[in-house]
C-alpha cells in the first residue's frame, strides 16, 4: 500500500507542468498553456459554459401542479429530492478531499469548479421545495436520508466507499473511491432523472425538470472528469491496474445496480404513470454496463447493450438546456444518438 502525498501549497523546486496525477511533482501554479493533460482546459471551458442559476428558472406553474400530482408521484418527488440533496451535499465535500491529493493544478482547478456546481445543485433542491411545499415539509424532506431505510442503505454504500479513502488515503483506496464516485454521479442519479423526465413528458413539473436537466448536463461532465482521472491514474501507475481491481469494479457496480433497482422498485415501482418497474430495472442495468465500459472494464450484465427507455435520450442529451426545451412539448420520442447504445465504445 502506498500512501498518497497531499499537494503542496507551492513548491519552488517543481515544474508548473505536473509530473504525475498522484504523488507527482507540481509547483501548484496554474498556467492553462503549460499543462500535462490537454483535455483539462476544454473541459474547464465546457464546465463554465454550463453555468446556471436555480432561481432564474420559474417554478410558478410547478407550485400549482405539485398539488395536483398523484399521492405516489408527490411521495416519489419528495423522496428523490431528499436523496439528491444528500448525494450532492456529500459530493461537494468529497470532491475537495480528492482534490487535496491531485498533484496537477489543472485537475485541482477542475475539482473546484465541480464542487461549486454541486453547491448550485443543492441550492436548486432548496429552491424547488421552498417553492412547492411549506417549510415543515421541506425540513422533513431534508431529514429523510436519516431515517428511510432503503435510502440509508443506498447512501451508506457510497459513504463507506468514500470514507475508506478519506480515512486511509492510499493509491488503492483512491482508485476505489473513484469507482464509488462514478456510481454516485453516473448511476445513482439516473433513475431520479428518469422520474423527473417522465413527469416532464407528461407536461408536469416542467420547471423542476428543466433544473434537473441542467444538473444532468453538469453530471455528464463530472463523470467524464472522474473517468479520465481513473484512466490516467491507472496508466501512470500500472501496478494498480490488476485483476483484483477489475474484480472490485465488477462487484462494486453489481452491488450498486442491485441497490439502485431496490430503490427504484421502492420509490417508483409500478405506481407512476409512464414508467414500468421492469423497464426501469433494464435501464439501470444498461446504465451500469455503459459506465463500466466507459471506465475500460467488461460489462456487468449480459446483454443490456441498448437503452430500453429510448425516450429518455431526448432529455439526457439536451445539452443546450438554455434553449427553453422544457417550455415546449417534446413529440419526437424516437430521437436517438450514441448514448442509446454503446456498441461503438
Ligand atoms: Fe451534483
Ligand atoms: Fe456531480
From TrEMBL:
InterPro entries: Ferritin-like_SF (IPR009078), RNR-like (IPR012348), RNR_small (IPR033909), RNR_small_fam (IPR000358)
Binding site for Fe cation 1: 88, 118, 121
Residues annotated for Fe cation 2 binding in this entry: 118, 185, 219, 222
EC identifiers of the protein: 1.17.4.1
Listed GO MF terms: metal ion binding; ribonucleoside-diphosphate reductase activity, thioredoxin disulfide as acceptor
Family: Belongs to the ribonucleoside diphosphate reductase small chain family.
Annotated function: Provides the precursors necessary for DNA synthesis. Catalyzes the biosynthesis of deoxyribonucleotides from the corresponding ribonucleotides.
Protein name per its UniProtKB record: Ribonucleoside-diphosphate reductase subunit beta
Organism of provenance: Alteribacillus bidgolensis
